[in-house]
Structures are given as C-alpha cells and as structure tokens.
Write a structure and sequence with these properties.
The complex is a heterodimer of chains A (about 600) and B (about 190). Helices cover about 40% and strands about 15% of the residues of chain A. Chain A is α/β, with parallel strands linked by helices and about 600 residues long. In chain A, helix 11 packs antiparallel against helix 14, helix 15 (about 375-390) crosses helix 16 and helix 15 packs parallel to helix 21 (about 525-540). Classes of the chains: A alpha/beta (about 600), B alpha+beta (about 190). The complex binds thiamine diphosphate (TPP) and magnesium ion.
Chain lengths: ~600, ~190
C-alpha cells in the first residue's frame, strides 16, 4: 500500500495526474490558493486561465465532448462556485462528464457567512450528478477518484468536489485510484439478453421501422457510432438523430433522414409519426423531440435503449425498455439479428422508403442564396463546403438560437465528437468557451464556433483566453442584428411585436477582435462570403468573422411547441412561395 | 397567421395521457448511506420534480450507523411512481429502493402524541376513547392529557379526529415506518 504524506492541495494535483488529466480550466481566488501553489510547482497538469468561471465549465465541456475524456474545472469559493452553476447545469442536462473542484472557506468557518462563503454543495446539489464536501484530508484522494468514477460512468454528468482551505493545507495520506467498483453506484451496462431477442423480433416484424438515436450513442464512445452505422446499413432502416446525436450516424449515408424534432426535417418527423416500430437508442424523448405527446408517433411499438432507467417511460410510454450502454446493446442487436434466418421485410421496406422519398422530395431545408445580403443557411453551407475542402478534422460548436439550428441542419457530420452544442439547457454563451476546450483537446483540429451576434456577447471575454493560448479558433458570427430565435417566435406567436429582441448598439466585431489581438473579418454581402471564409480558414490563429445575414430569415421546418409532428410549419421555399406570407406558414 | 389549436397553448407539450391514470399511494423503503446531505438529495428530488411526499421518516438502521433507511409514503400514477423509483435509484449514495406496496404485504406503523385540553364530560370522553383505541396516557394535568397512540396511519387519523372534537388539540406524529411481512430480512 502506498502511504504517501502530502498536503491536501498536493493530493488534488496528484489525483488529477493519476486520473490522466492533462488540462484544467480554472480561475484562482483566495480559497484555492494552496491548489494554485501546488499547480505552480509541477508540470503534469496544464492550467488554462479562463476569464469567467462559466467559461471554464463550458470549455471543459467542449474538451470532454471532443475527446471523450472528462473535463476538469478549478474555481474558488463563493462567486467562483456560483459563476460555475450555469455550466454545471448545462453539463447535467447534456450528460457531459465534468469534475469541478471548488474552493471553500476553512471548515471552522463554514456556516458563518464568512467572506466568499456560499453553500456550494447545497447550491449545486440539483445541478450535479453528485457532489462532495471534503472535511477530512485523509478522505480527499479517495473522494477525488470517486468523483472521476461517478462523472464518467453510466450516464455521465458533472461532479463537484468542494475543498475547504484548511483541508488543502492539512497533511494526510494519499491513496492511489482503485479500479474497485463504487459501493452503491453500479450502472448496468450489459443489456438483458431476452429483451434484445424481443427487440429483434419486433424489428424484424416491422413494415415501417425507424432508428431514432441520440447523444447516448456518442457518450458510449466512438465504437458505438460505428456499430450504429453497421446496424443501420445491415437493416436498411431509416435513421434520424437528435440535436445531441449529430455525428453518431454519418450524414452522407442514404439511410439518414436528418435531425428530427422542433427544427428537424420533414421526412424525419413524418417518418417518426408514421412508423410502426421505433428503435430509440441513447435518446430521451424530450419535448423538443416529441412535440405534442398525445400525438407523438401514435401507431408505433417503441423499443427504448438507455443507460439511465429514469429516462425510460418518463415522457412516452414505451413497449420494450432495455437498460444498458448503447454500444453493448448495438453489439448484441447486431449479433442476434445476424443469427436469425428471418430478414427484414424487404418489400415492406421498399414501400416505406418510397413514402419517405416522397417526403424528402419536398426538400424542406432548401433555401435561395441571397443576392445582396447572404442567407444564414447559405453562409453555413458555404462554410461546410469550404471546411470539407481543407480536409482538416473539423469541430463545430455553436451558441444558441437560429444559427444553432441552421448549423444543425446545414452542416453535415460524418463522425461523432465533432459537434458540440448546448442541447438541454440551451445556454447562450456556450460556443466560444466550448471551442476553446475543443481546440485544447484537438490541437490540430479546425475548430469553429458558429455564433449569433447576441449569444457571442455572453462569454465574449473568452476571446482573451483564445489569444493568450494561441488557440486558432474561428468565430463565425451569423449577424442578423436580432436575437433571431426570439424574433421568430415573436413573429409567429406574438403578432410581430418585437419586444426587446433587436440587437441594439452592437460592437464592431472586427475592431473588437483586433482589440483582443486576433484577426477580425467582415462579410457585408453575399459576394464577400467566400473570400471571408477562405481568409478565415487560411489564417493560422484565432479569427472573429462577422457575417452579415438576412435579418428576417426564419428557421424552418418548425413544429411550434405543443404541436404534433405532422403539424409542421414549412418555410417559403419548400412551400413554393416568395415571401413569408400568411399562406406560407400554413400548417402541413 | 395560420394557426393550429395547439400552437397557442404553452405547456401543451407536457401533458401526457398514456396508460393507467389512477393515482395510488405507495410506501417505499429507501436504503441509503448515512452521509451528510443524503436526506437533502431525496427531498430535493421530490420537490424539484414535483412529486408528492405524504410522509417521510429517516433513521440509521445498521449496527455501525453507516446505513440509514428512509421510509417514504407518496402518491402518483403508475408512470410517476416508476419515475420516482428510477430517479431515487440514480442518486449516488442510494443502495436500494423497495416499493413495499408493490412487493406485497407489509406492516405500516406510526406513533403520535396528542395533547387534548378539555374539561368535565369532554375530558372523561377523551379518556374513554383513548381506552378503546389502546392509546396510553403519557402525561396529564387537571385539564389536559397527552395520549400516546401507535398503529397504522388510518387508526391514528381517526383517533386524532375524535380528539379534535373534544377540545383544543396539539398533534405530533412520527410519520410512517414500514416493513415487509414474512421472514425475508433485508441485509444492509
Ligand atoms: C443564457 C440565455 N438567455 C436567454 C436565452 C433565450 N434565447 C434563446 S435564443 C436567443 C437569441 C439568440 O440570439 P443570437 O445569438 O443573435 O442568435 P440568432 O437566433 O439570431 O441566430 C435567446 C435570447 C438563452 N437561450 N440563453
Ligand atoms: Mg442574431
């Protein structure tokens, strides 16, 4: 047994090292100074100084999502911890493994309203997967290791370890990480075999099957995505992905129907509505996906594979629940399917694909290039084509709003871990710090934050972080001078009363970038779009590109919240109309 | 603009009507690590997700005091009850969640102390009723009694109701504790 005497602060660093952590995103303060001192004296763990603690958590999320490793955050007590709360909630909603170390006032002052004291474990209890307050230095190392185990096992999530300052100074015994399982927390990974058999029975009897996969497949590791592709190719079943799942199935495969849900494709949503057997895997039937629940896929038998039992039968009653890891489940599904004599009903599938092709023929995502001012969809499509031409491994993050949905619709992903967006919480200000994290995890990757002019201002201070660490992230702002998604809802649902949704007094983003020491570019019209993208991609350093786009463009298709999948609003192009007139918003 | 009946209904996405909508009462025994914050996690889960708590009691139950048992009485549709169990299971320090109502026959008991201030006939009547209910007198003054009663929650309810009719009352209840019938012993 290794019985090394270390200070609490040294133990923190040693535990990080033993957990294979190479980068920590943080911000110092009084209650974490001993840890910063220990950081200073070593070379194993690199610290990235962010400019706001929310940025630290999103950066850690971007790192985690693009590398598959847990993201680590280090912040001080009080305001450091409260500033991290949005990021923690974001990570909880999107099931991202994060270990967040927070400083705390010394144990004897806890509860005294001491300077920079807050009840961190109380505040973060509902927004973490689990949290700890370490009061005994001899339990610190074990708690750190347990935090990594909990954050990364089962359905991943954020874990907070609150570290009082006296515990950081105290000397104690360090323990090495043990592979031994947790005392009480033992997520089920291997699915029940008889249920897999039953699932295969159902899938083989299907006339109109669909595979509906989500972020759980991505969280199960890249191999799970490979298995998903194998399963879909083998069965020739149509496949749709959630916003969180983009990249889990290659977008260029013929079976891919595009994203589903509120801004999903016509074909994906109709296929969900009309299917007779649904295989939901690593997806959780949330309200942006289902629309009106009593009209959601009314005639299908539903198989739901999820690692989290509480995701099953939460919103939608399913017929065959299977608890397990998406990767294991897909492996078993493929094995059992292959062993069967019976094959999927080819004739029925052909009819089903015929139907789907009719829906596809509507080309619901089509748009007309802008003649003067660029269309936002056009800007994203050109960005996609040009990044593809670079041949570089490309990572996309987004902020929240219309640009996010257009990015999801018009940027194609062939691989998992290349798309990072705030899905569950919808956090404006996510994209820039997430891009920083993704770039640190993938130094040779091309990392682009597709942003809106309003969202980017929510964590704009992180430009400074990008410049300090020479991270060549590209910030591609679709500047429509509006909180476009808010404006769209106001147009469609609030009689065009654009209450407080205009982006007044915008900064000059080019000058702003330059002020931070990075390159600033602007495309004022559609004609300049290609050149600006080329220049942005060619520049070896961080770039902020301000792309002026059509201010009145709406994001379609759209299922208004509370409506059914077959109550979809289509855009003017798919509707065959010139302007977004009253008829253009006809429900289909 | 064109509109459907549902567009203008915020929150309509959240109504669900599937399966059995009957609201039932369930009693859970939740075995947890006896560590700080564990009760707050359980209570926070119920309040945060809008579940109902009818009764909740907690105490350590292992010889070394490392394990506690939380007895919870809640109500909900079948889907909600399933959700509560799954959500409880997700909490890291939770060993096990037993749905005693689903598992079969079980014993539920509650202890209550009821102070009744009454004189003359009402005072004598309270004592007579206490006798019928096998309640004990835990304290007395010239114009009050403190009765101690145990039993299933309905029995305690009816006793309290009768006492209220007889004078000013003050009630302290322990909340429900429950255990499965039969010779199976839960190892903790
Ligand atoms: C922190 C936060 N506050 C408010 C919102 C609500 N919201 C959603 S989208 C949006 C507008 C975003 O505007 P912009 O970044 O310009 O993107 P656009 O929709 O114009 O593409 C707002 C305010 C949010 N998602 N996050
Ligand atoms: Mg905007």
């Amino acid at each position: 047994m290794s019985t090394q005497q270390l200070s609490g602060a040294e133990m923190v660093i040693k535990a990080l090292k033993d957990q294979g952590v190479d980068v920590v995103f943080g911000y110092p303060g009084g209650a974490v100074l001993p840890i910063y001192d220990a950081l200073f004296k070593q070379n194993h763990v690199r610290h990235i100084l962010v400019r706001h603690e929310q940025g630290a958590v999103h950066a850690a999320e971007g790192y985690a999502r693009s590398t598959g490793k847990p993201g680590v955050v280090l912040v001080t007590s009080g305001p450091g911890a409260t500033n991290a709360v949005t990021g923690l909630t974001d990570a909880l909603m999107d099931s991202i493994p994060i270990v967040c170390l927070t400083g705390q006032v010394p144990t004897h002052l806890i509860g005294n309203d001491a300077f920079q004291e807050c009840d961190t474990t109380g505040i973060t209890r509902p927004c973490t997967k689990h949290n700890y307050l370490v009061k005994d230095v001899n339990k610190l190392a074990r708690t750190m290791h347990e935090a990594f185990y909990v954050a990364t096992s089962g359905r991943p999530g954020p874990v907070v370890v609150d570290l009082p300052k006296d515990v950081q100074f105290a000397m104690g015994t360090y323990e090495m990480p043990k592979s031994a399982a947790h005392k009480t927390y033992k997520p089920i990974l291997k699915p029940d075999h008889s249920r897999i058999e039953a699932a295969v029975d159902l899938l083989l009897s299907a006339k109109r099957p669909i595979v509906y996969a989500g972020g759980g497949v991505i969280n199960a590791g890249p191999n799970a995505s490979k298995l998903l592709a194998e399963f879909v190719r083998m069965t020739n079943f149509p496949c749709t992905l959630t916003l969180m799942g983009l990249g889990a199935f290659p977008a260029n495969e013929p079976q891919y129907l595009g994203m589903l849900g509120m801004h999903g494709t016509y074909e994906a949503n109709w296929a969900m509505h009309d299917c007779d057997v649904m295989l939901a895997i690593g997806s959780r039937f949330d309200d942006r996906i289902t629309g009106r629940l009593d009209a959601f896929s009314p005639n299908s038998k539903k198989i739901h594979i999820d690692i989290d039992a509480s995701s099953i039968n939460k919103n939608v009653r399913v017929d065959l629940p299977i608890i397990g890891d998406a990767g294991y489940a897909l492996e078993d599904l493929i094995k059992v399917m292959k062993a069967r004599q019976k094959k999927p009903d080819a004739a029925a599938l052909e009819r089903w694909w015929g139907k789907i092709d009719e829906w596809r023929a509507l080309k619901c995502l089509s748009f007309k290039d802008g003649e003067q001012i660029a269309k936002p969809q056009q800007a994203i499509r050109r960005l996609y084509e040009k990044t593809l031409a670079t041949g570089k491994d490309t990572f996309i993050t987004t902020e929240v709003g219309q640009h996010q949905m257009w990015a999801a619709q018009h940027f194609d992903f062939q691989k998992p871990n290349r798309w990072m967006t705030s899905g569950g919480l919808g956090t404006m200000g996510y994209g820039l710090p997430a891009a920083i994290g993704a770039q640190l995890g993938n130094p040779d990757g091309l990392v682009i934050d597709i942003a809106g002019e309003a969202s980017i201002q929510m964590n704009i201070q992180e430009l400074s972080t990008a410049v300090q660490y020479r991270l060549p992230v590209k910030i591609f702002i679709l500047n429509n001078e509006y909180m476009g998604m808010v404006r769209q809802w106001q147009e469609l649902l609030h009689g065009g009363r654009y209450s407080e949704s205009y982006s007044e007094a915008l900064p000059d983003f080019v000058k702003l970038g330059e002020a931070y020491g990075m390159k600033g570019l602007r495309a004022e019209n559609a004609g300049q779009l290609d050149d600006v993208i080329d220049e942005m991609l060619a520049h070896d350093g961080p770039v902020i590109a301000d792309i002026l786009v059509d201010k009145s463009e709406n994001c379609y298709p759209m299922i208004p919240s509370g409506a059914a999948h077959n109550d979809m609003l289509l855009g003017p192009v798919a509707e065959g109309e010139e302007a977004i007139g009253t008829a253009g918003k006809m429900l289909v | 603009m064109a509109n459907s009946g549902t567009v203008g209904q915020p929150g309509a996405a959240y109504t669900f009507s599937s399966g059995d909508e009957t609201v039932r009462r369930h009693t859970f025994a939740v075995i947890v690590d006896n560590e700080p914050g564990v009760l707050a996690r359980v209570i926070g889960l119920f309040s945060g997700r809008g579940y109902n708590i009818e009764s909740l009691t907690v105490s350590t139950v292992s010889a070394d005091e490392s394990v506690s048992r939380i007895n919870i009485v809640t109500t909900g549709t079948e889907m909600i009850i399933e959700q509560i169990k799954a959500q409880l299971h997700r909490l890291i320090p939770i060993h096990d969640v037993h749905d005693l109502t689903l598992d079969g026959a079980h014993v539920e008991r509650e202890l209550a102390l009821i102070k009744v201030r009454a004189k003359d006939h009402a005072r004598r009547e309270s004592l007579r009723i206490a006798d019928i209910f096998h309640a004990k007198v835990a304290d007395t003054t010239l114009d009050s009694f403190v009765f101690q009663i145990d039993g299933d929650p309905e029995k305690v309810d009816s006793f309290i109701e009768l006492m209220r009719a007889l004078g000013d009352t003050e009630v302290a209840r322990s909340g429900v504790i429950a255990i499965a019938r039969g010779n199976d012993v839960l190892k903790v």
